[in-house]
Amino acid sequence: MKRKLDENDVPSTEVAEAVSQNESTFETLNLDPRIRQALVKEKFSKPTLVQAQAIPLALEGKDILARAKTGSGKTAAYVLPILQSILRRKANEPSLKATSALILVPTRELADQVQRVATSFSSFCGKDIRAVNLTQKVSDAVQRAMLADFPDIVISTPARVLANINSSALSLNELTQLVIDEADLVLSYGYEDDINALSKAVPRGIQTFLMSATLTAEVDTLKSLFCRNPVILKLTEAGDEGGGISQFAVRCAEDEKFLLTYVIFKLELVKGKCIIFVGDIDRSYRLKLFLEQFGIKSCVLNSELPANSRIHVVQEFNKGVYDIIIAADDQEVLGTKKSKKPSASKDGASNDVDDAEAEFEESSDDEAAQEPSTKTPSNKKQKLTGKQKDYGISRGIDFQNVACVLNFDLPTTSKSYTHRIGRTGRAGKTGMALSFIIPKEEFGKHKPTSYPTAKHDEAVLAKIIKRQSKLGHEVKPYHFEMKKVDSFRYRMTDALRAVTRLAVQEARAREIRQELIKSEKLRRHFEENPEELRQLRHDGEIRAVRVQPHLKHVPDYLMPSKGKKGLVATGSEGYVGIGKTSENRIRKARERNRNKGRRGGAGGRKADPLKTFNAKGRKK
């Protein structure tokens, strides 16, 4: 990309639009050999667009404000220049001990992810580079000891950094680089006062990186506080913003959300790993308990769980240990409606500095001004607890190889929808997004499964379709053949009847107690005894409802005559098969031969048990 020059042949700070990636490699970026060796080990062969554009500018000492989609490699785009700068500085001043770089992130999960990236890229640097994550739940004395040795890189949320600065445990006098990752979220997550205080504590004239998936008013605020004439990179890649994602919308009744979810996962209509987004914490446990009735295992991810458990769930999911995550998108809901404040744990878990309450106000963007009809009218600021403030699942976290995102509860804005579906179709791969839509006339008809924001589903869907069409993408209707699915309805009703409100509350409390034990008391034990790590599984049954073993198996007589394909109206507009559509004729022939001579005729079909008995209970 050719940068614009002004009349004095000086690079301009105007927005740099990039649509194609330069033919650069990590070799051409003049990085330290130790860093290049780590890149080879991590199988980084070629820089992504944001890395190719940002790293050369960063190595020149420029301030950078970069907008690039989630999963585009923004973390490496600032970590690599920071490591290079530290190594160069230590080569010139070997005896210098000081914190050189501060990386601010909105959530603990993202802090852990950034630390792992920094550690892996500096694996061949020996003791020359040390990174510390301040969001780890350790005592103040331990944290003070971690900072006493002057780590080169400090990774933290704004509140935790400010607490350590105020206690004199952390000094920023020798700071040379500041990063604010997911910059558009930091202020929205309730860190406004902390950021304002940090702007006075950070030395003037240091290099600043603002990394974001969107350019909003919050980013402009941070830019004015920390940057000095930054180079703005507004990067657009081929297939950006959901280009590799097939998007579908399913119109259904409120209870049919549960019915279709049961059918999709029990009959394996979706292949691979899936993230299911629900509106709140109670909703996540209700769906988990419902799926447990059918023997479908899943993990719950929400702001109430300990940070170590949340991080462990994501890591194991990425390794392929779990296939289904039910994620409560707390932040998105808190911005539009008053949420229930989580009850205090009986286990006596103490909240840390980040657990102080902070005011939360939905970020003001263009969409917020254009979509007043889809939001609950409220001018009051919402309260956001510390546990909710440091949690976020639809942004920043690096989920790997996600095949499908299921919007069980539709988000309240098209912007949130874009971030959610960004969990799949990453790194050039394809993915699928499936969203359940409640028609206006169906809202409120099934009280036990009703959810308040579903009232505006159709209006939000119209905004989503409009936004995606501007990006060149289409949200297609997906039609299930509900007459064929009706044979599963009585099982869905039976399972839902068992998942009462009391059962959900008991499951929620029990899960928190279990995860607190796994997170704190047993963590070191399992580190020393890795063969017992299976005890740390997060997808075990909560067993807060009565067990109905017969629901775990699908009898043949419930299946349509055409099998799984019979569940979908093939003539519907925009139909694209979710599962595999091709059949193995050799396997089919073997199955026919195996069934020859069995009861049911030469065709090999099994007899329908409902048709082999008369009204008196005798065989026909």
UniProtKB/TrEMBL annotation:
InterPro entries: DEAD/DEAH_box_helicase_dom, DEAD_box_RNA_helicase, Helicase_ATP-bd, Helicase_C-like, P-loop_NTPase, RNA_helicase_DEAD_Q_motif. It holds the Pfam family DEAD. SUPFAM superfamilies: P-loop containing nucleoside triphosphate hydrolases. Its main location: nucleus. GO terms for cellular component: cytosol; nucleus. One of its GO terms (molecular function) is hydrolase activity. Its EC number is 3.6.4.13. Residues 1-23, 336-387, 579-620 are annotated as: Disordered. Residues 352-369 have a biased composition (Acidic residues). A motif (Q motif) lies at residues 24-52. The keyword Hydrolase applies. Signal peptide: none annotated. It is an enzyme of class 3 (hydrolase). It catalyses: ATP + H2O = ADP + phosphate + H(+). Residues 587-599 have a biased composition (Basic residues). Keywords: ATP-binding, Helicase, Hydrolase, Nucleotide-binding, Nucleus, Ribosome biogenesis, RNA-binding. Belongs to the DEAD box helicase family. DDX56/DBP9 subfamily. ATP-binding RNA helicase involved in the biogenesis of 60S ribosomal subunits and is required for the normal formation of 25S and 5.8S rRNAs. This is RNA helicase. It comes from Talaromyces proteolyticus.
